[in-house]
Amino acid sequence: MAERGARWLLFFSTLTSSLVAADKVRTFTPFRFSVEPVDTLAVRGLPAVLNCSVSSKAPVRVEWKKDGTFPNLAADDRRRLVSDGSLLISTVVHSKHNKPDEGVYQCVATIDNLGTISSRTARLTVAGLPRFSSQPEGVSVRPGGSEVLSCEVSAELIPFTHWEKSGQAVETDSRVVQLPSGALVISNASQADAGSYRCVIEGLGPAKSSEDAQLQILPGTDADNKYKLHMFPSLMTTLLFICSDGRFAVIGGGILQITSLTENDAGTYSCQADNGNETIETQAQLTVQVPPRFLKKPSNMYAHEAMDIIFECEVTGSPAPTVKWLKNGDAVIPSDYFKIVNQNNLQVLGLVRSDEGFYQCLAENEAGNIQASAQLIILDLGKSYIALPTSTVPSLTSATTDHVASGLGERLGPTPSPPRDVVASLVSTRFIKLTWRLPAEPHGENITYSVFYSLVGSSRERVQNTSAPGEMQVTIQNLIPDTKYTFRVVASNRNGLGESSTPLTVATQPEVQVPGPAPNLQAVSVTSTSVILTWERPVTGNGEIQTYKLYYSEKGQDSEQDMDVVGLAYTMTGLKKFTEYSFRVVAYNKHGPGVSTEDLTVQTLSDVPSAAPQNLSLEVQNSRSIMVRWQPPPLGSQNGELTGYKIRYRKGGRKGEAAEIMTTQLSQLIDGTEYSFRVSATTVNGSGPATEWLTGETFESDLDESQVPGAPSSLHVRPLVNSIVVSWTPPENQDIVVRGYSIGYGIGNPHAQTVKVDYKQRYYSIDNLEPSSHYVITLKAFNNMGEGIPVYESAITRPQSDPIDPDIDLFELFHHTPHTPAPDPSPMLPPVGVQASVISHDTIKVSWADNSLAKNQKITDSRFYTVRWKTNIPANTKYKVANTTTLTHTVMNLKPNTLYEFSVMVTKGRRSSTWSMTAHGTTFETLPTSAPKDVTVVSKEGRPRTININWQPPTEANGKITGYIIYYSTDVNAEVHDWVVEPVMGNRLTHQIQELTLDTTYYFKIQARNSKGMGPLSDTVQFRTPKGNLADYSFHGTPGGRSPLPDHGFGSTLGKYVHFITYFDGGIKIRCSCKQTVVPALRKRAACKSNNGSHKYKSTSKDLKPPDLWIHHERLEMKPIDKSPEPNPVMTETPIPRSQDPSGESGHQRRNSFQGKNALAQRILRENFCSHQTQHSSSSHLLLSQPIDTFHFY
Q: Which of 234, 706, 936, 948 is the most buried (most CB within 10 A)?
């Protein structure tokens, strides 16, 4: 009783003192989600909103995660945050190979310097294309009977389906019911129900209807065959129990409907039908999923450093929810100090200041997910007792509930001196007992003690308090065997914590009851798939060894397998050939597992390869030589180091008489002869399986490839609405090698796009063209020496009003064309179903099917496939090809973030198919591998302390550039982290830096970033600001220094004319003279005057219209630009220096391949070029602001 009275006295005294310092205790911050996102079904092409709203008195920053990562909403023109924190997707994008909006979203709210909370997750699903898995079928039913009309669609389309009868919507009631699956049930049928029914998908763009299904009413009644139906859960004994519950109803003649479903409705249901002569029964299992629900949420909590706390979280649901914890939005990973106890509670041991923040309990099952948060505030330790805001601390562990007070105010009196003679009176493997003596100066009675302890080398300290005042011993439990700990003891009186004792380091005892490691573990490979392992009995067995557990894993694999072994040896079989394995052994006695041996690595023996070489291909060199190429067998089937390859070949289809060589080029062959080849790989153990026979035929005579081919002897075109069919005949000189044909085409320009086809091909369909357009087409034969002389043809595609292009059989179309050799009378079918699966930023796997094979797609003959691929950037990129004998091929060494097209052709003997339909794949993004280029620094006209820095995007951006970082410093040798940093949005190529120091050298460099991270830094650019208050400085910074504006450009001479001279390929020359004036304190840009006066071209003008042509002052080319520029075009106001003499014309003229001049073009350009003010973009272009007719330059 005396002890209890002393504790109450201590509590009330500390509670009284808390009134003095209560206003100094930090309060909890209200911070929660008032609205959280929910699962959403979106429609392609329409907007979608994921709602999120945060309730807090403090300023909150809201962000969104998609599939666990933060998307860059600032650079996204479709997704943006609205004012309340919700996410708006203005237009949902969704296709078979591009689903950027579908995924799992989560709202994340942050209060700076306080913490972060995350909402529940919500899945955004985009409804697929309206389609029916199967069509409803016509049915017949007698009057009074029931029937079901099925409507099979995917689950996300069901909400958009309804039924129509004879074109009118079907009205549902208790007799006519549409099931959740979309099927229509008609019960108690009558003649009025007969008619034509169809299922309709509406609300996803144009409505889509199924085929009509007829419902016929047969004569007679359904009484003779009518069954009496009973439905009941198996646990219920009578049907009456179900019928008495209004939530159960039988509809559609035999369908059990349950409304307001509860968890208790789960079970096995039986349907029983009885017609008096026969009884049949079937069963169905009903599983009810219940979303998670909190029974107990985590609570806000105060604590001190070194305390142990527990956040409680109790949930229920079906299936049982899984629980995870977050701290400030990041997942809590269980460790020695963060533990999951009592299934779902989070225990934090030895609090430190960084543990403060918001903790969240997230519960999830298949039916949904929920979250609840709590705030942890760690109070400062003082020297006087101030009660924690709660009278008791139920969330603390039992070891710390007595120590519930700590000072926040001023000292009320002296505190105890350090406890004396702290010793470890008892040391075990998992606990240590500490004792000590009273402090020399306790300064009061009822002294309590706190023991702080930690692992040696750890900064996280835990605390345990004595169970009663005056007690001077404590036992620390749950320690780790054979581990060093540091202990210190602090005494407390009513005035607060006293001084700490000197730290005491004690090591726990090692475990001695379990066996030690098994010595002399050895492993010897005896075959390519087996290893013999031996070991000896542990020196410290600590009793009888009951068994040994052998652990093993394959090198590079994280998972480890094990097996029980009796004895001191074991032969491990079934291993992979020529593979490294890691082995270790653990001995077990009655106390459990002992100490493991060190890992021992051994490699199984090699064997012959178990697979044939890949991608075997033949290239006929001349009449007596064939080049054979292949790739090694798959790495996992090589079974050893490859020592070489064996090539077997024979004439034609003969069996036997096959020669064997070890080279890759076969010479001394017979001209005009067909040969078959197969290749096998070898190791030191022998040869593996060989490839299938592959056939090639030498040329009948050697052809010349020392010169390019001649022009094709003829070129014919047939225009359609959206395509042009091209056919041709080979060059007349058949003695020159032709390896393929290059077809160029474009509107008015035959070099806009280029495709290359095989030398065997004699026709090609150019698709995806514009109707009623004039196309120029060129055709050239090529070989290894280059491209030959082109031939030209032009054609105008038919208007859109013409009938749609028929499906043209190109073989039939050109089979009888004069001078065109007929294709193979039985051409092979091209591969189908070509797919391009993106593997990484530089790898795409191409797969296809071959309709000319059997259904099992097994290749049993000598056919091979040629895969070709290319990218359209730049437009004249050539195809790359590879041969393979399988139905897949992995293409590597591609460019990141690049769209590639793939097509496949099959060849068997002399027969080849046409190229298949193309498949497309875009490689993933990766870090930029080059720096921004063309970095220039220009002083701001009239503002010497301001500069403009301009640049061009990196050549190898490897993804969409999301931003740039500009570094600048006056010390070129300073560390990068000491440079001044200014971020710039990714859609800008210029930036203004102000308030620089006059007459000072600055150094600049730029770094680009994409979604994968930062690229390399550009070369340093040097620039020196002007001296004094000069207003007319304008310098271009270069890597070597600076250069002033040339006198004949935008110089300072009053009344001087500036001449802009531009030359076009077509021989058109335009000269525009504009007078430049200088006004004190204000320099005006040189401008030409129109009839309406001078106009400024600003990027912010709402009425800005794009020019029809760009005239680049460096490259001097005419380039069409997009009619819909970006909303924020990147412009610079810096004048463009003119470093070349305007009269220097010879260096810019180029020859026009078409003869003659375009007089109309010359007149329009002369009239319009000087009639409007010129402007300068970041890439230094001049603009023609008036529309100009189309000109063609070649």
A: 936
CB distance 861 to 843 below 8 Å: no
Please report which confidence band the pLDDT of residue 1079 belongs to, taking 50, 70 and 90 as the band edges.
very low
Q: Is the pLDDT of residue 809 over 70?
A: no
- Provide the residue type at 231 as one letter: M
pLDDT digits (tens, 9 = 90+) for 284-339: 888 888 999 999 999 999 998 888 899 999 999 999 999 999 999 899 988 878 88
Give the contacts of 606 (CB within 8 A, at least 6 positions apart): 528, 577, 578, 639, 640, 641, 683, 684, 685
* Cβ-contact 970, 1000 below 8 angstroms: yes
Helix (H, G, I), strand (E, B) or coil at 5: helix
> Cβ distance 316 to 292 under 8 Å?
yes
Nearest CA among 662, 658, 718 for reference residue 693:
658
C-beta of residue 737 within 8 angstroms of C-beta of residue 754 = no
Is residue 692 within 8 A of residue 861, CB to CB? The reply is: yes
The answer to whether the CB of 314 falls within 8 A of the CB of 388 is no
Distance of CA 1173 to CAs 149, 233, 1096, Å? 71, 86, 7
Nearest-angstrom CA–CA distance, 958 and 927: 6
Distance CA 1075, CA 743 (A): 49
Residue whose C-alpha is closest to residue 789's, from 876, 715, 872: 715
> What amino acid is encoded at 757 in this protein?
V
Task: Give me 844's structure tokens.
Answer: 């795409």
Counting other chains too, the contacts that 205-214 makes at CB distance below 8 Å and 24 or more residues apart are 205/43, 205/44, 205/45, 205/130, 207/130, 208/130, 208/131, 208/132, 209/164, 210/132, 210/135, 210/136, 210/151, 211/135, 211/136, 213/135, 213/136, 213/137, 213/138, 213/139, 213/149, 214/138, 214/139
Q: pLDDT per residue over 491-527, tens digit each?
A: 999 888 899 999 999 998 876 677 888 999 999 999 9
DSSP at 924: P
Question: 914: which residues sit within 8 A by CB, 6+ positions away?
Answer: 761, 827, 830, 905
Omega before residue 319 within 30° of 0, cis: yes
3-state SS class at 1144: coil
Q: How far apart are CA 954 and CA 985, in angstroms?
A: 15
Which residue type sits at 878?
K
CB 461 within 8 A of CB 350: yes
Smallest CA-to-CA distance from 107 within 59, 73, 65, 68 is with 65
Q: What phi-psi label fits residue 17: left (phi over 0), alpha (psi between -120 and 50 degrees) or beta? A: alpha
Q: Quote the CA–CA distance of 159 and 773 in Å, as a whole number.
A: 45
Question: In 869-918, which residue ranges form alpha helices assigned H by DSSP?
Answer: none
Encode burial over 951-963: b for 16+ CB neighbours within 10 A, e otherwise. Answer: bebbebbbbebbb
Buried b (16+ CB within 10 A) or exposed e, 434-446: bebebbeebbeeb
DSSP 605: P
**What's the CA gap between 674 and 1107, in Å, rounded?**
61
Chain-centroid distance of CA 60 in Å reads 28
Question: What single-letter amino acid sits at 1017?
Answer: L
pTM of the model: 0.41
Residue 363's Cβ-count burial label (10 Å; 0-12, 13-18, 19+) is: buried
Task: Answer whether 586's CB lies under 8 Å from 551's CB.
Answer: yes
